[in-house]
Automatic annotation (TrEMBL):
<keyword id="KW-0150">Chloroplast</keyword>
<keyword id="KW-0934">Plastid</keyword>
<protein>
    <submittedName>
        <fullName>ATPase subunit IV</fullName>
    </submittedName>
</protein>
Length: 22
């Protein structure tokens, strides 16, 4: 289950980073 949470957080972080939320 921990992997799922990590993947979700990573996806959200990458999404914001790529979106340009610097």
């Amino acid at each position: 289950i921990q992997a799922l949470i990590f993947a979700t957080l990573a996806a959200a972080y990458i999404g914001e980073s790529m979106e340009g939320h610097h």
